[in-house]
């Protein structure tokens, strides 16, 4: 009993210290980071900007099919949030919802609650999906909702953002579609990253035809490596050195499709994929690249590899 009181007092003091003086987020100043969090057959990306701003692009979710009950597992609460907390991230500056499919938007409500972002960025949103509930949740938390369309170009957090899609006149259907996706190009120093959501062939060809696809070193593969995306015109215009793919282990869709893997191999693109490498990260200081993976080494044709410390 005599020992218990000092121990409880020490524990209370340590807890109070952490609440008042939390550890700073484990990010690298002056670095642009893109991390694909392993959320199974879904997608969630952490973007850490050079000036320290933090974004989550999509929050994972469970693919839904007609006639099936929604899975009670919440990847935003159960996977993404614990990972952010493990890196001492307590607040997010921006949450980005690329489009309204459940496997991208499903975990965002929990992240809005837990990390209280200042802004929620969206593109074209369908009213008959999960979006209205997320919008209501964001408004109740005082989150500013920002609609982005092609032509917007702005500096944020030490990086340059360009919105490539959706087009200004694009009208979403009543139900969410892959081509609703918000497409963002981030540039820092000599390098750039392209975040594609789930866009398919028609949008990729439109971007190529309009000359909007400048050479980009890091490509986040659209639609989890589906055959209908990552077309040759897109790859030939971008000429990426690295590709990042979010997919579930032995998923029932067969993603990534063998044809997509062949297209990447022919162009000597180094592929990082969550189904094999677990959580995967690409960082740049504007000159050099660094790659980290959670599970297995990557055959490094370019850049270099090391296991993640996070």
Task: Give the gist of this structure.
With 310 residues, the chain is α/β, with parallel strands linked by helices. It contains nine helices and 16 strands. The longest helix is centred in the N-terminal third of the chain and has 17 residues.
Structure notes:
The chain has 310 residues and is α/β, with parallel strands linked by helices. Helices cover 26% and strands 23% of the residues. The chain is built from nine helices and 16 strands. It has helices at 4-20, 75-86, 102-105, 108-115, 131-140, 201-209, 232-238, 258-266, 274-277, and strands spanning 32-36, 45-48, 54-57, 94-97, 119-122, 144-147, 153-156, 159-165, 183-188, 191-195, 218-220, 242-245, 270-273, 280-284, 289-293, 305-307. The strands form two sheets. A nine-stranded mixed β-sheet has the order 6-5-4-3-2-1-14-15-16, with helices on one face. Strands 7-8-9-10-11-12-13 form a seven-stranded mixed β-sheet. β11, α7 and β12 form a beta-alpha-beta unit. It starts with a helix and ends with a strand. 46% of the residues are buried.
In terms of topology, how is this protein built?
Blueprint: H1 4-20, E1 32-36, E2 45-48, E3 54-57, H2 75-86, E4 94-97, H3 102-105, H4 108-115, E5 119-122, H5 131-140, E6 144-147, E7 153-156, E8 159-165, E9 183-188, E10 191-195, H6 201-209, E11 218-220, H7 232-238, E12 242-245, H8 258-266, E13 270-273, H9 274-277, E14 280-284, E15 289-293, E16 305-307
